[in-house]
Amino acid sequence: MATHTPTNIVLHQTSRVLELEFDDNSKFELPCEFLRVYSPSAEVRGHGPGQGTLPVGKDKVGIDNVEPVGNYAIKLEFDDGHNTGLYSWDYLYELGCNHERLWHEYREKVKQLGHD
Fold first, then answer.
1. DSSP labels, 1-52
2. At what angle do helices 99-112 and 89-97 cross, to 10 degrees?
3. Where do the domains of the chain lie, and which CATH numbers do they carry?
4. What 3-state DSSP class applies to 66?
5. Residue 80 confidence (pLDDT) above 90
6. For the chain, how big is the Rg over CA atoms in Å?
């Protein structure tokens, strides 16, 4: 059972932001690029420790569709064709709470690989 449940989910396609409000009154605005690079899919995370990939060049990615999955998650369909991985309520909440730190870590990894 999810610890945190969203009370409102709004996709802002022009600004490419997914806005989430949770039952504890937390509110997060997560960019599509951030959600894409932190996809919970096996394609991004891998099938085991150290097997994940680092998606780069996703700064223009958008979300075409947000599909509910039961009472515990959403499936995001990105306009680059990526549509695997279920974003559970708790995972979305964790991404929201840790957005700044995770984004900084991602940008550092990208920089180390020589990408902009």
1. --SS-EEEEEEETTTTEEEEEETTS-EEEEEHHHHHHT--SHHHH-SSTT--
2. 80
3. 6-112 (3.30.2020.30)
4. strand
5. yes
6. 14
